[in-house]
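> example.struct
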């Protein structure tokens, strides 16, 4: 079994109120990733998992055959996906259905993810996402005017949880200048067996390798900006106990393996941009005027 404290990445006890120390900021700047243990209590992890399962209850797989896969360009063109920036939608794993067209397991054990606006639409995820501690971390990392652009609940289900190939989140959440920061909350233990993340430390200082955007007909395309391969032999595992927060630069290359184990690996993620930067109208992720971008302040 993976030792959940054994990583070559800098790892700290979560600071009170999100007040990162200079050493934490230095680790983020040098590696592109910062691991903060015990950011969440187990009660909070349980509350978010329970709420996610309530939302899944309302999901009817018969309505949806959309499958999210970073290796399948066709799926990127799926309208169900492209219109989900201001909704709560559900994306199944590639292997969710058996030969007879039936789900292989319970709904939550066939889902890849749920996204992309729980943080604005669902009261439980809203309350969790808009907090002073996250605002403080974001501020100390240099974001002057944060907007939470996206939330995802990642299921990484047992046996069929798929691989996520090496990528940079700024490829998809692009601003000028680049400003994306990822927040990844482990709601269950993430191990090398059940598909924890891996990072290539320091590579966030290299330019963005590709940019994904909408064409005029709303199909999505990815423009390669630099075709040199990632030095994946330098990847470092980032196993994380439930309650850990992993903060990473939008240009930090990361990936996760398939889940071949018998345990799920649930995580919640937020992506934040600086609203002082330009957010292009051809980014895939858009929201309607009725759901304006918000920072970390709680709703009245
Ligand atoms: Fe990612």
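> example.seq
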């Amino acid at each position: 079994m993976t030792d959940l404290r054994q990583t070559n990445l800098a790892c700290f006890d979560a600071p009170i109120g999100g007040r990162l120390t200079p050493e934490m900021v230095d680790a983020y700047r040098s590696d592109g990733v910062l691991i903060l243990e015990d950011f969440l209590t187990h009660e909070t992890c349980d509350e978010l998992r329970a709420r996610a399962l309530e939302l899944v209850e309302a999901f009817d797989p018969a309505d949806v055959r959309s499958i999210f896969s970073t290796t399948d360009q066709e799926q990127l063109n799926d309208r169900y996906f492209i219109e989900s920036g201001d909704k709560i939608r559900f994306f199944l794993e590639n292997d969710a259905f058996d030969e007879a067209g039936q789900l292989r397991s319970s709904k939550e054990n066939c889902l890849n993810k749920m996204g992309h606006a729980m943080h604005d639409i669902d009261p439980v995820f809203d309350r969790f996402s808009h907090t002073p501690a996250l605002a403080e971390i974001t501020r100390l990392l240099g974001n002057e005017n944060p907007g939470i652009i996206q939330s995802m609940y990642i299921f990484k289900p047992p046996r069929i949880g798929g691989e996520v190939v090496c990528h940079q989140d700024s490829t998809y959440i692009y601003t000028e200048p680049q400003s994306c920061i990822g927040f990844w909350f482990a709601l269950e233990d993430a191990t090398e067996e059940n598909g924890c993340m891996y990072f290539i430390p320091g590579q966030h200082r290299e330019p963005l390798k590709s940019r994904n955007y909408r064409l005029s007909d709303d199909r999505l395309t990815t423009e390669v900006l630099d075709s040199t391969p990632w030095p994946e032999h330098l990847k470092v595992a980032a196993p994380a106990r439930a309650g850990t927060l992993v903060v990473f630069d939008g240009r930090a290359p990361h990936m996760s393996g398939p889940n071949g184990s018998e345990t799920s690996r649930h995580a919640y993620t937020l992506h934040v941009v600086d609203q002082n930067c330009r957010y292009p109208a051809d980014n895939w992720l858009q929201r309607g005027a009725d759901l304006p971008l918000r920072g970390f302040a709680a709703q009245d």
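> remarks
The chain is about 20% helix and 25% strand.
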